[in-house]
Amino acid sequence: xxxxxxxxxxxxxxxxxxxxxxxxxxxxxxxxxxxxxxxxxxxxxxxxxxxxxxxxxxxxxxxxxxxxxxxxxxxxxxxxxxxxxxxxxxxxxxxxxxxxxxxxxxxxxxxxxxxxxxxxxxxxxxxxxxxxxxxxxxxxxxxxxxxxxxxxxxxxxxxxxxxxxxxxxxxxxxxxxxxxxxxxxxxxxxxxxxxxxxxxxxxxxxxxxxxxxxxxxxxxxxxxxxxxxxxxxxxxxxxxxxxxxxxxxxxxxxxxxxxxxxxxxxxxxxxxxxxxxxxxxxxxxxxxxxxxxxxxxxxxxxxxxxxxxxxxxxxxxxxxxxxxxxxxxxxxxxxxxxxxxxxxxxxxxxxxxxxxxxxxxxxxxxxxxxxxxxxxxxxxxxxxxxxxxxxxxxxxxxxxxxxxxxxxxxxxxxxxxxxxxxxxxxxxxxxxxxxxxxxxxxxxxxxxxx
Length: 450
Hints:
Layout: H1 7-16, H2 21-34, H3 38-62, H4 68-76, H5 79-111, H6 117-133, H7 136-165, H8 178-181, H9 190-204, H10 210-214, H11 221-250, H12 257-260, H13 263-270, H14 276-308, H15 325-344, H16 349-356, H17 360-382, H18 396-414, H19 416-449
Family: Belongs to the amino acid-polyamine-organocation (APC) superfamily. Amino acid transporter (AAT) (TC 2.A.3.1) family.
Membrane topology: Multi-pass membrane protein
Keywords: Amino-acid transport, Membrane, Transmembrane, Transmembrane helix, Transport
């Protein structure tokens, strides 16, 4: 594998990987449920994500690997854990590629009515499959400019919002706290609404893990992942929490446009920005295409790492031109298969697949926390010089993170809308864990017989 990614690529991958359509559009449902308290929800989940990324950054700086958390889980817990975390994440990323292709195609067909949606899906899939089949630098450049556009859009939105809140934007009056304390108050739907908003915000942060996968192919993996993790965490918190604060301050939380048009469009409309809907459609399209690009990359590298560790079909580990091209093709094909299922079997197989990946990111975070607990002691005892990034207040904050994740699982089990996702993900993870354990036993037995 090559080392074609530069530090600027890693920094933007870290920022761009988590800024997707879930923030620009999906956050509307969270605001509708939680009201102004969505700021608390995003701040709470953002804090948890910061802790998880710090743990992952510690391990990835010590042991850079394209397998990231999967390789760390194998090193800390055992091969079955690496197998489970890696293949669950691969299914999540490949399914997400399909969903993002469908979303991007629906935006373009809105601009060009009469053109077939499947043709745009096929075009997007082909473009990003080809970009990932080429040198890794191509992926880095695509993602750098995609992420730069998304970051620029959010930064401009925050500046406009801050000016409007201060009453300095021409044609607007300072809203004060009327939308924060009126319209039912800060907690209009009580703690139940806050819980729904919290669950929505947790899953919106998924995607940060890609930077630790990409770091293994950077010019200086140790310094690269350390810098990217440190700088990304506070910037992402600013973008997410700052955006939510601007939106609920300027727009009534129960405004139907927040869900119908998306919270960013609703806010820009309130500020009288002409063409706000089309501007945000372009940004959302870029966010979706960026996520497709990053997810094909991440899925192919996770698959390659699993195979390199003897946990998958050997053909997926074939590298040509310093790129695991078979893994790229397999990940793209799986994503396209998900698209076809959305057309052919939307009500059973496709919905089952969506439920199955619903809580995978939380499972991955739990593997990260448990792995960090176990590896930190080993590194301190055997190779303390590897600890260039350290988890804060170890082991206390790691245990706090695990308790918070367990609490989120409990909240998911209590909510009808997320209960099915929790159980479906649990069934997939148990099946993978059993498969990984049996594979581990078979390999161990074969090794003894040799």
